[in-house]
Write a structure and sequence with these properties.
By secondary structure, the chain is α/β, with parallel strands linked by helices. Among the domains are: 71 residues, Tetratricopeptide repeat domain (Serine Threonine Protein Phosphatase 5, Tetratricopeptide repeat, Alpha Horseshoe), CATH 1.25.40; 73 residues, Rossmann fold; 167 residues, Glycogen Phosphorylase B (Rossmann fold, 3-Layer(aba) Sandwich). 46% of the residues lie in helices and 9% in strands. α14 runs antiparallel to α15 and α19 crosses α23.
């Protein structure tokens, strides 16, 4: 299976994933035990449904698909006991994309011939494409019981385990696939993706290069190699790989999108925004795509026309790009702004908005639509014309007053946020633990307030020695967080929505960045054109936060001394 980018599922906080035992069963030849193990409930581990690509061993089909489907339907009606006919109909339906019906036909074939390896394997592929990992896993394992020498079943089962976040099992299965088929490029690519997720960049690069020795035209290997080089900071090397992937597969949205990200990271917005539009065809962003009958807006005048501007990705993305809304209104548009529930109150009266809704609500009739992160392209945004009139967000005055009486009046008042959305593909790189920030809280003349939202906020209870006040900081939503931030002197945050909120409010914010940060912070520099009040503290060595925190501590000590003069 060709996996293009690091899957969102991770093993953070779960060093022994529930299905690691399955690898041991398989290695010992105990396939029946492995099958039963995989039949255990997987609901707590499932990632969002995706559409992975599989190597497949489907039978050749006669003629045009539509005609073949009708012929096989007639045949199974006349000969319902013929398992091959059910199988062939299932294969046609699979290729047509009718996956639910295809799965049902594969099961009918198996009811007639329970030991049909190809039917079990194909059923696994079908369920895998449907995103039904709980059903795909035992189908693959049953296929391996019948044919333990099928490398394709091992590599697909390994790809499934990777999607579940069980990386050790995934790596073991890919190696078993390669032991059976040493020339199989897909298994090298899949193993490389797993090793990249395990931060074994050298091993990942070796795997992708091996895949390319077997198949020099493998676009997935080129693209994944580029991603690892990008992760290591070699943007020129990454761009060469993405371009090579496009030479092999000109319609590769993944390669075009990732090439665009490297351009944005380098500040080449002219090319970057254009290529960033390819995101809708990638596995990572396909689930965010919206389909409307109304046309996509590209910047033309809107004399009185109503336009739906809709959030598409994270909370921080919405906060960053909502700054473009007044520009849309200035072109004559009546703006309907659709945002996440957590931002509804904060953005309810945003300038230029005639109506604010949350996703799931029925919007009023509109003529145009545009995702928020496509607005920079519509306005031809360059580094020289980023809308940066700060602040462009303001906290509600009544809420600000409510928090005013609950914060210290003496000393430097600092808000902390140390973790972002746990499902973010770069979460393990961009976030830290509260314990790592503990040295900051010992600086004289400072008081710290938690701005952390979500499960990571519980780390406060695990470190009672830290003098950190929560003040109900999670509140109801970001309108409450904004009111608390308005009462603080400084915010210190990793790359999260809280950092964007502080920057949009015009509050001094120090942002701790990974060695290879998100594209919006550019590759180097201590300041941000998007947020003039932000100061960027960057890793010099991938994964090493200690020098970053030491630098922040030195600057904070200096700021605390100046504050008390």
């Amino acid at each position: 299976m060709n996996s293009w980018r690091e899957n969102q599922a991770t093993t953070a906080g779960n060093p022994e994933p529930p299905h690691s035992l399955a690898t041991l069963f398989i290695q010992q030849g105990k396939l029946r035990e492995a099958e039963e193990y995989f039949r255990q409930p997987l609901s707590s581990l499932l990632s969002p449904a995706e559409q992975p690509t599989h190597p497949g061993t489907l039978k050749k089909l006669p003629g045009e698909l539509g005609t073949a489907a009708e012929e096989y339907r007639e045949t199974v009606t006349l000969q319902p006991q013929g398992s091959d006919y059910h199988f062939n109909l299932a294969t046609v339906l699979h290729k047509q994309g009718a996956l639910q019906e295809a799965a049902a036909c594969y099961k009918k074939a198996l009811a007639l011939r329970p030991d049909d390896f190809e039917a079990h394997y194909s059923l696994g592929v079908t369920y895998h494409r449907m995103g039904n990992l709980a059903a795909a896993a035992p189908a693959y394992v049953r296929a391996l019981q019948i044919n333990p020498n099928c490398a394709e079943a091992y590599t697909n089962l390994g790809a499934l385990c990777q999607e579940l976040g069980d990386l050790r099992t995934a790596a073991g299965l890919q190696r078993q696939a390669l032991a059976l088929a040493p020339a199989m490029p897909e298994a090298y690519v899949n193993l490389g993706v797993v090793l990249s997720q395990l931060n074994d960049c050298h091993g990942a690069v070796t795997c992708f290069l091996q895949a390319l020795t077997k198949d020099p035209g493998h676009a997935g290997a080129h693209c994944n190699l580029g991603f690892v080089l990008e992760k290591q900071g070699d943007l020129e090397g990454a761009q060469r790989c993405y371009r090579q992937a496009l030479a092999c597969k000109p319609d590769s949205d993944e390669a075009r999108f990732y090439l665009g990200v490297t351009h944005l990271l380098q500040g080449d917005y002219a090319n970057g925004w254009q290529e960033y539009e390819a995101r809708w065809g990638t596995k990572e962003f396909r689930r965010f795509r919206r389909t409307f009958s109304q046309p996509l807006w590209r910047g033309q005048p809107l004399p009185g026309a109503r336009i739906l501007l809709h959030a598409e990705q994270g909370l921080g993305d919405t906060i960053q790009f909502v700054r473009f809304v007044p520009l849309v209104a200035a072109r004559g548009g009546q703006v309907v702004l659709e945002v996440q529930p957590e931002l509804r109150r904060l953005l309810a009266n945003f300038p230029g908005v005639s109506c604010t809704i949350t996703r799931g609500e029925t919007p009023p009739e509109f003529t145009w639509h545009c995702p928020l992160m496509s607005l920079p392209l519509a306005f031809g945004t360059q580094l020289t014309n980023i809308p940066a009139a700060i602040p462009y967000l303001r906290a509600d005055a009544a809420r600000v007053q409510t928090y005013s009486g609950r914060v210290e009046r003496q000393g430097l008042r600092i808000g902390l946020a140390w973790a972002g959305n746990p499902t973010h593909s770069r979460e393990r790189q961009r976030s830290i633990t509260l314990a790592q920030l503990e040295p900051l809280t010992r600086i004289a003349g400072t008081t710290f307030y938690s701005l952390q939202r979500g499960a990571a906020a519980s780390q406060i209870r695990g470190l009672p020695s830290i003098k950190l006040s929560e003040l109900d900081s999670q509140g109801k939503d970001f309108a409450d967080t904004a009111a608390l931030v308005a009462n603080l002197d400084l915010v210190i945050s990793v790359d999260t929505a809280t950092a964007h909120l502080a920057g949009a409010l015009g509050k001094p914010v120090w942002i701790l960045l990974h060695h290879m940060p998100d594209w919006r912070w550019l590759q180097q520099g201590a300041t941000s054109l998007w947020y003039p009040t932000a100061r960027l503290f960057r890793q010099t060595t991938p994964g090493d936060w200690r020098p970053v925190i030491d630098s922040v501590r030195a600057e904070l000590e200096r700021a605390a001394r100046q504050f008390h003069r």
